[in-house]
Amino acid sequence: MTSRGFTTIENEWIALKDGTRLAARIWMPDGAEEDPVPAVFEFLPYRKRDGTSLRDESTYPVFAAAGIAGVRVDIRGSGESDGVIDGEYTERELADGCELIAWIAAQPWSNGSVGMMGISWGGFNSLQVAALRPPALKAVISIASTVDRYNDDIHYKNGCHLSAQLSWAATMLGYQSRPPDPALVGERWKEMWLERLAGEPFFMEEWLAHQRRDGFWRHGSISEDFSSVDIPALVIAGWADGYRNTPLMAVEGIGGKAKALIGPWVHKYPHFAWPKPRADFHSEAIAWWNKWLRGEDNGIERLPQARAFILDAVRPAARRDSDRGFWVAKDSWSSPKMQCFYVEQFGRLTEGMPIPHAPGHPVYLHSPLDTGTASGEYFTLKPDAEMAIDQRSDDAGSLVFDTTPLAGDHDYLGRPIVTLALRGHATGGNLCARLVDVHPDGTATRVAFGVVNLTHRDGNADPRPLVPGEKVSIRLVLDACGYRFRKGHRIRLSLSTAYWPMILPPPDDDGVEIDIASLGLALPLLGDHSKIEVKEPANPDPLPKYIEHAGAATKRQVVRDLSANRTDYRIHEETGLYEHPETGLLTRQLREEIWSISPDDPLSMTGTSTWTCDMHRPGWFVRTIATARIACTATDWVISAVVTAFEDDVQIFEKIFAEKRIARDLM
């Protein structure tokens, strides 16, 4: 296909019906007004001018060269757009998205067909807007997203409270506190900046007000009604990311209109993600858009319904640049057959079903509260210690059950399930189950995990406290995986009552009695499949190069103060100072985060996350510092935040979100 010339429109104002102007960056194919083209729309609060410019510039010029316009719009109150953000995936945001799609379709350069695309936030709202059925929206590509906002995002997981909730609240304070670029908005930049500084919310206040899966979380969760999405959806994720469940849930729910692609990746676009192998996202996306936005007969609709990379006995490492494995395809996805295991009388994990009515064999489990420091991040951006590391340290505080060394390779694809019966010693508690590959040398790779707040054992909408001493049944569905356990390896099931700092502790930490005789593990067999090749990108380094003034730095540390009986988990992430070669804008972000806990006191838990964000050009410098904090009592979550802004090293603004106590709801 001949490459087409294009023009980059650095900023175009799009006026909404209420008078608000949103800022768009547009990549326009040459000759579009004479020969109208389809358009791909992305709608984010992450700042087109600097926050997402690298990845935008790796993709939208390629689309434009293929005759597809790219329209990247900043959500209200972000980047150069007017107004103040009002939350995540709000009714106003989604209504704005529908209005923008109508605006794009009505332009003289548009052929009237629009696609919507994005990763994370943009992947979420692509599916959410699709469910609203704006007429011009013909297809979506959703990457690292969710169909269930309560259970598969950074807030809660099966009723457990994710530490990522604080991290993300601090991140959004940092992102939303930054000003627009004066080079685009002119003298009103400071007025706009002060408006958003004064008006931006501390998202965590709202998130903590909804600790159950209520209407707040059902809004925007297309799993509530998959039939609302009636256009083709390509849904992509990576096994190293927290959003790994979405592709298979999407094809199960949406049906034949959806296609799933799951690679070994962290939370990145497939053409530059780690670990490798990567996928040629550009070629596949262009074919997708040409089919559904142009009507081109290119066969993309005949893709297998599910394609997945099966990790082949990978090892944890300080950095995983490439993972061993192989690609498989299933023309039609259906619930897999399960291979079942139980724990026999000597504690060995053995193939078969638990023996009905077997005599009970209770074992008391009470993990140290700092069990979980090998868990990594919920969503990962780099293939280092953000990913789960060797699990032996976490297994030391867990109840573990191993098979004998395997006589042959075992291949799985889907969601493992753990079933068991237990008795609580308190009215609540958390339980974590991990599927682990134990290598012949003892190295332990986490394959999948699941957690449950035991008060949510029968659902997340109406939790019920445990009755101490009363036996209850637990069915815990782990996150999806695609994995080969090799001959000579052992399959391990690890159980713990703590998974910190990923999961915050319950108010009571009295442990549980697990009936080992009831314990079952069901693993999803790969079953019938085709081995395939997934084309890798021709360019191994597709991101543009900016001018480096100071390099990036990252550090993760676990510090155990034995004298003080205190464990700290410390994160230092610095992006480095980089200058855009065309705009001259220099940016730098620094994240400092620390979580602390005493291994025997759940009420000792604290977390602090601070973002420092710099922007400058010669003669102009701004900095914002956003800090969010959380602590707890037996009855309350205790949160606070502060945002401070500087112009030329002079403080011009401070907003304090005073300490707020929010009642713990069976957490």
UniProtKB/TrEMBL annotation:
NCBIfam families assigned to the protein according to its UniProt record, in alphabetical order: CocE_NonD (TIGR00976)
This protein's record includes keyword Transport: no
UniProt xrefs under Gene3D superfamilies: alpha-amino acid ester hydrolase ( Helical cap domain) (1.10.3020.10), alpha/beta hydrolase (3.40.50.1820), Galactose-binding domain-like (2.60.120.260)
Listed name of the protein: Xaa-Pro dipeptidyl-peptidase C-terminal domain-containing protein
Keywords tagged on the record: Hydrolase
Keyword Hydrolase applies: yes
Example GO molecular function: dipeptidyl-peptidase activity
InterPro entries linked to this entry: AB_hydrolase_fold, CocE/Ser_esterase, Galactose-bd-like_sf, Xaa-Pro-like_dom, Xaa-Pro_dipept_C, Xaa-Pro_dipeptidyl-ppase/CocE
Pfam family, one: PepX_C
Domain Xaa-Pro dipeptidyl-peptidase C-terminal: 286-544
Origin superkingdom: Bacteria
